[in-house]
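In response to the reviewer comment on reproducibility (Comment 2.3), we provide here a single inverse folding case reported in full, input and output, so that an independent group could reproduce the run without further information from us. The structure tokens appear first.
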């Protein structure tokens, strides 16, 4: 059986056509089932989500949260655990009693806070498929009030001290958990992306500090936490948003463990954290900052990873770098240090975007996930889109919030980039810790049915595989690249023929890309991992429209699905 599996080609599936309906399509010979839906209980004494009432405040930290995103599977003894992010909430559906979902009480705010963050859940497969193991001692919700530690160079800095935490080391909650990563030592890395949306103030006299602008922190928020929970009122706690925007390390094997915010990895709108061990054993973490004209980063640890050794400081001590892509196909990692930036080390870790602007990093078309090829020394980043690159305003090029002009460059070559691209780099000396790299574009997404010019996309894009806005991205163990999209699904105009969001597989060796899955209308496909035996591919469906997955008339629910082949051979 093993030999037969190995003999299956790079694309062991018949590609699926674009779709515009409300369900999932996978290739012939594959099947899918829901594993975990928004509001589904993790414990047996908790009821399932009631669409008319939502989830009660008492139960809101005991159910699977909303809007599933990045995920990783961990094997602990005989147990398989999935750690999975819940990026954001829809207040209207979580607070059905509140007009337009506007919180009316502190309990309303607490429900919203609890339905986001991270779930750790044990999963198991029986003859009917995969299920959450109710009441498993590993089951845990981490949310906006979970106690955490700040560590690394910004821990204890004046920039992160608050009245409630005068030492600047004990913080609460992780926010807008988007992409993720896993370490070789069995921990989960959850990434705080649009954290700015949770902090605000009703104090019209409060002048927002200058550093807020670069991160988009403004007075008014959708969630209105600041009206009921003073911690989120920036007039009272101006440092509180400086304690969010990090990569947070979680030990899924211990439900009592304290998550740790690793400030050495910088404060940006973190997409994911892709970890690889360099030739000499140092830990390399690649990270995108998802905003127009922001940058791509890399952390390299000072210490080396020794299996079974002490890993507690590996993500605290090291150097943060930002990428510069030259138009000749070469590239360089620029170190962010007090010498190169003129900033103190804690300032670099808290005001990372500002530090990166000082060294001349390349403005990118919204860096989303980074994926590292396990069978070749190369990495990929999905640059999802950028409708404003190259655009002029008042006689000046559009810039990011720090003022870095977004001129077109070879890695981000399109003015009004509605489709996105995937950039790939090859570290010099076959070493991910090296300071230099060569790069190329794995693909330029486009629409060859609508355009005959550069907006048709690169030669590996055709009418049978076209898509827009690549976002989630991960390699399977065989070296096949799985690309998920979060784009326009109007199927009209520039997007005609592309259908709903989708998941595709790409072959790094040939550049061939084939469509594997189409998602329900309104949703994006985000987050994926594989079972220990690689016979199941878990995939996240975020923000579907009705009626997914429960059918006509039911509330739409973001869902992690389990995909298998009917003959149960390995698929990852
Ligand atoms: Fe949450 Fe950049 O995606
Ligand atoms: Ca994303
Ligand atoms: Ca996206
Ligand atoms: Ca999303």
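Designed residues, in position order:
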């Amino acid at each position: 059986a093993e030999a037969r599996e190995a003999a299956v080609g790079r694309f062991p599936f018949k590609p699926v056509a674009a779709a515009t309906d409300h369900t999932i399509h996978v290739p012939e010979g594959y099947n899918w089932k829901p594993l975990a839906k928004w509001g589904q209980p993790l414990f047996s004494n908790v009821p399932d989500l009631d669409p008319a009432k939502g989830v009660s405040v008492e139960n809101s930290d005991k159910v699977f949260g909303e809007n599933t995103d990045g995920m990783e599977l961990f094997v602990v003894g005989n147990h398989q655990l999935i750690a999975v992010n819940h990026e954001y909430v829809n207040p209207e559906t979580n607070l059905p009693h509140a007009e337009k979902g506007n919180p009316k009480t502190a309990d309303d705010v607490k429900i919203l806070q609890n339905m986001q963050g991270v779930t750790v859940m044990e999963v198991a497969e029986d003859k009917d498929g995969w299920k959450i193991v109710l009441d498993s001692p590993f089951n845990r919700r981490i949310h906006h009030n979970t106690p955490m530690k700040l560590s690394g160079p910004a821990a204890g800095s004046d920039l992160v001290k608050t009245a409630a935490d005068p030492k600047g080391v004990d913080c609460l909650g992780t926010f807008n958990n988007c992409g993720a990563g896993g370490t070789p030592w069995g921990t989960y890395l959850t990434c705080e992306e649009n954290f700015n949306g949770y902090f605000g103030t009703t104090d019209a006299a409060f002048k927002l500090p200058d550093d807020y602008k670069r991160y988009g922190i403004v007075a008014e928020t959708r969630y209105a936490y600041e009206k009921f929970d003073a911690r989120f009122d920036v007039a009272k706690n101006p440092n509180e948003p400086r304690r969010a925007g990090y990569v947070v390390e979680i030990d899924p094997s211990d439900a009592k463990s304290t998550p740790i915010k690793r400030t050495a990895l910088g404060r940006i709108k973190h997409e994911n954290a892709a970890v690889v061990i360099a030739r000499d054993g140092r830990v390399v973490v690649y990270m995108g900052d998802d905003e127009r004209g922001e940058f791509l980063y890399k952390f390299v640890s000072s210490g080396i990873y020794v299996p079974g050794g002490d890993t507690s400081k590996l993500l605290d001590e090291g150097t943060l770098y930002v990428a510069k892509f030259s138009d000749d196909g070469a590239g360089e990692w620029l170190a962010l240090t007090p010498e190169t930036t003129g900033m103190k080390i804690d300032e670099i870790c808290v005001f990372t975007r500002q530090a990166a602007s000082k060294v001349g990093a390349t403005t990118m078309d919204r860096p989303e996930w980074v994926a590292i090829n396990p069978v070749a020394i190369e990495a990929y980043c999905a640059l999802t889109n950028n409708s404003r690159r190259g655009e002029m305003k008042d006689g000046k090029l559009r810039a990011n919030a720090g003022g870095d002009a977004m001129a077109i460059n070879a890695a981000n070559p399109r003015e009004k980039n509605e489709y996105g691209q995937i950039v790939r780099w090859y570290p010099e000396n076959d070493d991910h810790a090296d300071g230099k790299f060569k790069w190329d574009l794995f693909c330029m997404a486009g629409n060859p049915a609508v355009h005959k010019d550069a907006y048709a996309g690169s030669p590996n894009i055709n009418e049978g595989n076209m898509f827009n806005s690549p976002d989630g991205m991960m390699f399977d163990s065989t070296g096949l690249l799985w690309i998920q999209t979060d784009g326009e699904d109007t199927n009209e105009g520039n997007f005609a023929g592309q259908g709903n969001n989708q998941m595709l597989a790409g072959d790094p060796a040939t550049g061939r890309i084939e469509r594997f899955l189409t998602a329900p209308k309104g949703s994006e496909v985000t987050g994926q991992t594989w079972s220990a035996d690689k016979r199941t591919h878990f995939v996240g469906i975020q923000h579907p429209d009705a009626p997914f997955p429960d059918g006509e008339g039911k509330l739409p629910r973001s869902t992690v699905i389990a995909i298998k082949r009917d003959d149960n051979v390995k698929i990852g």
